[in-house]
Amino acid sequence: MIDVKRSVSAGIVLIMLGTGLVVNAQPFKVDATYPARHDIIYNAPFYEGFEGIPLGNGDLGGMMWCTPTGLRMQINKSDAFDRSSGESIGEVLRSCAQLEIDFGAPVMNWLYLNDFTGRLSLLDAKASISSHTPFQRTDIHAYVAANQNVWVIECEKSEVGEVLGKASVEVTLERWGSRTFPGWYGGYSRDAGAGLGKATAHTADSVIYLVERFSDTEIAVSCKVIGMPAQAVKNNNRSVSLSTDGFTNGKLYIVIAVASDQDNPNPLSYCLRTLSAIGDQDIQAIRENHADWWSNFWKRSFVHLPDDYIENIYYFKRYLLASSSRGRYPTLFNGGIFTWNHDVRNWVIPHHWNMQQFYWGILPGGDADLLKPYLDAYTRLVPQAEAHAERRGVAGAILWSEGHT
Fold first, then answer.
1. How far, rounded to the nearest angstrom, does the alpha carbon of residue 203 sit from its chain's CA centroid?
2. Which site from 171, 266, 276, 395 is most exposed, i.e. has the minimal number of CB atoms within 10 Å?
3. Angstrom distance (rounded) from CA 103 to CA 115
4. Are 174 and 97 in contact, with CB atoms under 8 Å apart?
């Protein structure tokens, strides 16, 4: 068993020694903004989920991508496991919901763009999207709060001329579920109803929410708009929407809270209380706390490589681990919490060899705390591994199989 605190200390000592050697040689200069050189930049709208921007706080996260009229995002959580999929595959990590923001005009449609910029800022784990069309200027900033399961989307717009006339913004929260297509690119269930789940969507005053009850886990997702009035509408049993009463110029916030019954005995009550406690002033505090956590994370260590592309991959890998490996379970090797196509997740079983590979190399960088979910999960599995060995005639031993639950 690795002592996490001791590993962190050892990593810091090694980094300090390495940094001392670099400083003496003075080949380059490093400051607190060094990770910003590895930001991911988009010069055109990204309409596919697999092209999207990954955001997360280690437990809650997902992908965010463009639509011609706004944004779409898939909300995932590290503990949303389901054992009753209807596909005979054991357990699978399912999505929690999808959320769409529609500005009522083709603000992200490439045909109408005068200018567009998208950016994933590694330094503060924030997505920024700016578009300029003949209809309006749109600026969006999104992040998953580092220390609470809240996703914040800041939307600022200014209409150009009188083309639109107070176009409303519509926010839709929905969960449809889907088959996972779990085989190793082999067979799949022909039942299109497999894996749909039992999500129910509801409204409460100006809040929309849905609840999904898997076999072992209950998940709640709630959403509200801060900055202007919004009307909640139930579209059907799996979809609810918030619609603003016009939005010409200014800023509004879309705030999403997510919880499971592994976080709280009553996840829905927790989500509703969390949203109720967040107002305009609280957003500023959440943003600052989020930026501070990520600033401290990047200060742990740095690596400078002669090949800038390889260095990009190194920093992006650290970002993905910090964004997905701080919850109860380790991040899955095949997508983690960054899936986008409902519940599709090829090859769903946590293969131990693959899980190991995803975590190789993080201790020398001082990121031992990101290994903790991996160590905890396999520590919890030791009794099953002992029983596994005993069933095969060996007592007092542990046996890991490549594929396991």
1. 24
2. 395
3. 17
4. yes
* Nearest residue to 200 via CA among 211, 186, 192, 189: 211
Beta pairing partners, 241: 172, 233
pLDDT tens readout for residues 226-267:
998 999 999 999 999 999 987 777 899 999 999 999 989 999
Token code pair at residue 267: 């996840």
Q: What is the pLDDT of residue 106?
A: 93
pLDDT digits over 94-138, tens only?
Answer: 999 999 999 988 999 999 999 999 999 999 999 999 999 998 899
Helix (H) or strand (E) holding 150: strand 150-159
Q: Residues 152-166: what's their mean pLDDT? A: 79
Q: State whether residue 43 is helix, strand or coil.
A: coil
Q: Tokens for 275?
A: 């949203």
CB 138 within 8 A of CB 151: no
Could you tell me the two tokens for 126? Answer: 């924030």
According to DSSP, residue 332 is labeled P
Global pTM value: 0.89
Q: Rounded to whole angstroms, what are the CA distances from 99 to 125, 173, 255, 267, 324?
A: 20, 5, 11, 19, 20
Among candidates 202, 196, 107, which has minimal Cα distance to 157? 107
Quote the CA–CA distance of 107 and 240 in Å, as a whole number: 23
Angle at 98 between CA 241 and CA 344, to 5 degrees: 150
Reduced to 3 states, what is the DSSP secondary structure of residue 258?
Answer: strand
With contact defined as beta carbons under 8 Å apart, do 61 and 329 qualify? no
Among 150, 331, 329, CA closest to 253: 150
| Res 194: pLDDT | 85
